[in-house]
């Protein structure tokens, strides 16, 4: 089975349709018991396990992503990586994964002081990655990673950046929880992605910590990683590679073609968590990055996010995860 690391205001859309995580001394189980209030889908799910039925793009329930955007950006709001709102959001996302039957661990991230996008000072503090895996998952066995960052810049509710990515991660995790994928999958909600100053050293803290925690065998086992970052605006899905091309980028483009999703390939895309994996020698790509007016501002509210675009991205991810030849 697969594990993955991955709700809106009033807006209409054109496409409506009827194992343990990587071992590290800082990776510990969450203390939060699973809750079912507000959990999309059923109120009780078995532990994810290998199923005889392959996952298919039609298994996606886009309302899960829509409700996630509404909750994270509409109810919780700005989620600066070291603040109390981030911790509330992390508890909520952890409960969603647990209610689907995943084992959820938290990986501590020590974040330095810095400055926000508009220059406001940020104190040093602690953030966390949430890592969701199926019971009994072997971290040294070949697997895939699907992730999205949960934090925002300090002034933005972060509907598109990046409740949209987290929403699609949860929707995909829900779809694959009782279905078979081509490889096991780890789902990660990364903390502290947003920059606290210029350059790589003050950016992508969560994914850098995750990658640093992997042993050489675990790094070799990562056969592909996808970062979902700003995936709810537009009608065409950007598919980004850190170089001219990447095998994961090419696989995602092919997956999108199979399900009829329009895409645009992008090169030299290094401004999301996939870049931490690429720098460490693992194949990885990014979905998302369409420009929009509310970027890193108080206007990044649920109404800017399109349910149809969330669905296009989710269907593309599921097509990438599905066993080859399963349709």
From TrEMBL:
Domain Peptidase M28: from-to ranges: 129-320
Where does this protein have compositionally biased stretches of type Low complexity?
24-54
- Renumbered residue ranges of the record's region Disordered: 10-63
Q: Which Gene3D superfamilies match?
A: Zn peptidases (3.40.630.10)
Q: Which InterPro entries match?
A: M28_fam, Peptidase_M28
The positions making up the signal sequence are none
Q: Which Pfam families match?
A: Peptidase_M28 (PF04389)
Name of this protein = M28 family peptidase
């Amino acid at each position: 089975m697969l594990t993955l690391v991955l709700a809106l205001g009033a807006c209409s859309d054109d496409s409506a349709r009827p194992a343990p995580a990587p071992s590290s001394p800082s990776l510990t189980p969450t203390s939060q018991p699973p809750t079912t209030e507000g959990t999309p889908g059923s109120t009780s799910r078995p532990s994810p396990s290998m199923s005889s039925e392959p996952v298919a793009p039609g298994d996606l329930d886009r309302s899960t992503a829509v409700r996630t955007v509404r909750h994270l950006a509409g109810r919780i709001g700005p989620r600066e990586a070291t603040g109390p709102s981030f911790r509330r959001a992390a508890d909520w996302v952890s409960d969603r994964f647990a209610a689907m039957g995943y084992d959820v661990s938290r990986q501590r991230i020590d974040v330095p002081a810095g400055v926000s996008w508009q220059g406001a000072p940020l104190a040093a503090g602690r953030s966390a990655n949430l890592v969701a895996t199926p019971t009994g998952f072997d971290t040294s066995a070949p697997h895939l990673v699907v992730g999205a960052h949960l934090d925002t810049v300090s002034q933005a509710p972060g509907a598109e950046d990046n409740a949209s990515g987290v929403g699609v991660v949860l929707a995909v995790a829900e779809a694959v929880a009782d279905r078979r994928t081509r490889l096991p999958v780890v789902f990660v909600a990364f903390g502290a992605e947003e920059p606290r100053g210029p350059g790589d050293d003050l950016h992508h803290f969560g994914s850098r910590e995750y990658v640093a925690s992997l042993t050489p065998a675990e790094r070799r086992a990562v056969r592909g990683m996808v970062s979902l970052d700003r995936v709810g605006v537009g009608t065409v899905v950007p598919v980004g590679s850190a170089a001219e091309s990447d095998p994961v980028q090419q696989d995602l483009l092919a997956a999108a073609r199979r399900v009829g999703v329009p895409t645009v390939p992008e090169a030299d895309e290094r401004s999301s968590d996939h870049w931490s994996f690429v720098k460490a020698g693992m194949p990885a790509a990014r979905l998302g990055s369409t420009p929009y007016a509310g970027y890193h501002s108080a206007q990044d509210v649920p109404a800017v996010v399109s349910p149809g675009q969330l669905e296009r991205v989710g269907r593309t991810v599921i097509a990438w995860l599905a066993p080859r030849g399963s349709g």
